[in-house]
Amino acid sequence: MSGSTLLKETGPREVFCGLTSIVWLHRRMPDAFFLVVGSRTCAHLIQSAAGVMIFAEPRFGTAILEERDLAGLADAHEELDRVVKNLLKRRPEIRTLFLVGSCPSEVIKIDLSRAAERLNAQLKGQVTVLNYSGSGIETTFTQGEDGALKALVPLLPSSQEEQLLLVGTLANPVEDRLKTIFKRLGIQKIESFPPRESTKLPSIGRGTKVLLAQPYLTDTARELKDRGADILPAPFPLGIQGSKLWIEAAAKAFKVNPSLVDSTLEPLVLRAQKALKPYFEQLSGKKLFLLPESQLEIPLARFLHNECGMELVEVGVPYLNRDMMRPEIELLPENTRIIEGQHVEKQLDRVREHQPDLVVCGMGLANPLEAEGISTKWSIEMVFSPIHGIDQASDLAELFARPLHRNNLLSRKTLETV
Ligand code: SF4
């Protein structure tokens, strides 16, 4: 590890739960359905996070367990079976049904893996039923994707064929561009996980080399490794530096001629550096504080320091997988303060003490900080925006320059009216 300072903190947390990842997963796999087994709070979260009402028939819903159902577990199982059967009658196109657990204590008592097994036996050939937890007690919002992918791994067919597997949801156009680059490098077979159709699962085995596209897939990576895949150590594809090293890691594993890699990537890098320049001017020297939420914090800090010149005050992460993050941490400046976990009160005290120019945080903390005159960026925006790859570096920087620019305009306006 580089000379970063790695510390741990525990206490009250302020993060979204794993249910939130349903919002991007259901878009990725339109033939899958995510049925949250939860309370009205869960239904409310998922509706407001997705901005879509349940009655509009989206590809997720909530089996709300009423008092009556919770009175006895037998009732809860019957109620769940009834909801699932009604759903499948209305939506025969569903091919994979995820039962997503949540944190109300009565829901925790329901064995969703047993429910999935029972439903699988009844619905054989029609739909595959899987389960994972999105509970706020166990997960932060990006971990929901880890849970969903981990549940899919046992269904992946085995194959020893040599292939590159990109793991983690990417925006479709970004993924297409990255695949084009790998094809130009001569890598023939490139698959994605999750796939765009839940039934078109990639195969896995000794010939599979995995590039993780997202930093929050610890459990999935472990399962893929257990199935024989080789997880390529690399930083994550954010910014020019991270994306280039990420592509180069695959090129090296597939023994691509380094001069072909250089000639393929050089024009992309030059174009991206030019596009990034105006943002470097806006962001350089500004103080940045990242509160823990998405697990994207370390790659973002690396990009914003190394390519945009920002000064890192503190980098918070909800969980730190040191092995997976090693290539990222090695790229951070000496003495970067990385804090795993959260004690929200203490972190807010440090934010106030350091008065950073920009804080990356959850939506719940952004408004109070803005009211105190501190510019913020919602970390959840990073998972909804196409930010991966060399081409996207300037778009990623723009996400951070925008709140600073807006606050500049507002303070100028205030001055003019005084
Ligand atoms: S899973 Fe827990 S934290 Fe998430 S919305 Fe439901 S009750 Fe709230």
Protein architecture, described:
With 418 residues, this protein is α/β, with parallel strands linked by helices. The protein folds into 3 domains: 18-139, Nitrogenase molybdenum iron protein domain (Rossmann fold); 163-260, Rossmann fold; 272-417, 3-Layer(aba) Sandwich (Rossmann fold). 47% of the residues lie in helices and 17% in strands. The chain has helices spanning 22-28, 40-50, 67-70, 73-90, 105-108, 112-122, 143-152, 172-184, 218-226, 239-253, 258-283, 297-306, 322-329, 344-354, 363-371, 380-384, 393-417, and strands spanning 5-9, 32-38, 60-64, 96-101, 128-133, 163-167, 190-193, 208-212, 230-231, 287-290, 311-317, 337-341, 358-361, 375-378. The strands form 3 sheets. The protein has a 6-stranded parallel β-sheet, with helices on both faces. Helix 7 packs parallel to helix 9 and helix 11 (258-283) runs parallel beside helix 17 (393-417). The radius of gyration is 22 Å and the shape is globular. Mean pLDDT is 90; it is low at 52-58. Residues 17, 19, 38-39, 41-42, 45, 102-104, 134-136 line the site of iron/sulfur cluster.
